[in-house]
């Protein structure tokens, strides 16, 4: 396995890019440690696939370098990078048995049959497909086909990195949680460096130790799932992660204080910087119904099982709150309280308050 370093990486599909808007990938500097579980998370068009193709060698970046354990591989083709990749749709041979599918990457590289059998048996046990080894792949269900595709990526023990490109997109929703759990278990057992590319926050947050959140070709935050939820560094992260996402509210700054819809709002700590578009960010989990606070009128209530999502209008602005127990009726007048230590100011999207120590 390998540590992967991206150094001053930028890419444009235009021959002569003139400004940041011409780059599909803005400048990226990051390290993925050997043996880690990482996710690239963001909406369609944010640059995830471009970055994955650059790491795999299918695309050479316009600028910067890719290093595997300090070895520059920027100009090397995919077959010289020693990587394995699992795609959206299973890449297996339907006419082969499960055993032969798992053995193929090893036989193709000339490994001894004794070693091939040991590795195939080991991976089959991890995947819980031992009883299918003599079954032709054409007879497998879609989730089992993707299991075998994953196994083909994991059967080699000499790869630098295993990359997963939206591997659960074609899997039925009720089977996705099984494969997510299995993949996490596999990582903990083989300790391979793994990079998981997805637009699905649940997949990213349940698989990865560190998540790289991307927007419009830019990395906006790198952190653990807990860090991304509890302290978003950018409004996009707060809005994209969470269900529902963070409330992002227009803010007014006057006399050293911050207000929303004409009412003063207490923040987590000291405000930093000045100028730019000011917005308040607070997650619905930290908005509560209260006897005092912001005056609001309930617009709608959604019962989502263990709790309800109450959307109330403060002036012309909707604010969401997660409420357990009894909920108000539509049209009812209520007051909303923001938990101060979870209420933050953002400037032009970026976090602009300091956490209290």
UniProtKB/TrEMBL annotation:
SUPFAM superfamilies: MOP-like, P-loop containing nucleoside triphosphate hydrolases. One of its GO terms (cellular component) is ATP-binding cassette (ABC) transporter complex, substrate-binding subunit-containing. The keyword Cell division does not apply. Keywords: ATP-binding, Cell membrane, Membrane, Nucleotide-binding, Transport. One of its GO terms (molecular function) is ABC-type ferric iron transporter activity. Gene3D superfamilies: 2.40.50.100, Nucleic acid-binding proteins, P-loop containing nucleotide triphosphate hydrolases. CDD domains: ABC_Carb_Solutes_like. The keyword Ubl conjugation does not apply. Residues 4-241 form the ABC transporter domain. InterPro entries: AAA+_ATPase (IPR003593), ABC_transporter-like_ATP-bd (IPR003439), ABC_transpr_FbpC (IPR015853), ABC_transpr_MalK/UgpC-like (IPR047641), Mo/tungstate-bd_C_term_dom (IPR008995), NA-bd_OB-fold (IPR012340), P-loop_NTPase (IPR027417), Transp-assoc_OB_typ2 (IPR013611). It comes from the Bacteria. Transmembrane segments: none annotated. Belongs to the ABC transporter superfamily. This is Carbohydrate ABC transporter ATP-binding protein (CUT1 family). It comes from Litoreibacter ponti. The lineage of its organism: Bacteria, Pseudomonadati, Pseudomonadota, Alphaproteobacteria, Rhodobacterales.
